[in-house]
Structure to design on (167 residues):
């Protein structure tokens, strides 16, 4: 099966998953007393995927590391390949507080597209501080992205704090 066959289903997935994530977020809070909800572990969470027309990069500042996947069309085979690479190893990304933002419609002129100004296909990694950390013109695996994130000073601080809390 060629990657081209994944383009339409993955585009639909990219639109549908944020809605599922919102439903899951709402369900976690139902029925529990305020302040008593247990924080879900990385293994219990799902990789959140948002459409660029429905979010702003400022929505994620200091809480998440957005990976923005741009393409001129959802049928772009690089877009399909990138989405497959990201969703095949979601735990690595979830553990690093990553959310995925997709933008496959240049005519929509989303705020994200206006700010990052891609040319055709592009993968952009944004740090928790809102700064662009990485731009790539071809698909990158979750492993490669995770390694890049792990080199960031804020991520290294998170790892040190986790180790100190566990020991």
């Amino acid at each position: 099966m060629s990657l081209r066959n994944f383009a339409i289903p993955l585009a639909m997935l990219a639109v549908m998953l944020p809605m599922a994530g919102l439903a899951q977020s709402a369900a976690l809070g139902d029925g529990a007393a305020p302040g008593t909800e247990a924080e879900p572990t990385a293994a219990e969470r799902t990789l959140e995927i948002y459409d660029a027309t429905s979010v702003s990069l400022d929505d994620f500042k200091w809480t998440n590391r957005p990976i923005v996947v741009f393409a001129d069309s959802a049928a772009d085979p690089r877009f399909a390949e990138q989405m497959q690479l990201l969703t095949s190893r979601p735990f690595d990304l979830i553990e690093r507080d990553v959310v995925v933002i997709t933008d496959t419609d240049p005519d929509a002129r989303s705020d994200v597209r206006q700010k990052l100004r891609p040319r055709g296909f592009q993968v952009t990694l944004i740090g928790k501080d809102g700064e662009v950390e990485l731009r790539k013109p071809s698909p990158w695996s979750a492993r490669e992205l995770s390694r890049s994130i792990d080199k960031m000073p804020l991520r290294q601080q998170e790892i040190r704090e986790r180790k100190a809390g566990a020991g």
User: Anything to note?
Assistant: Residues 7-29 form the longest helix (23 residues). The chain has one domain: 3-23+40-166. The domain at 3-23+40-166 is CATH 3.40.30.10 (Glutaredoxin). The helical segments are 7-29, 77-88, 90-94, 111-116, 142-150, 153-166.
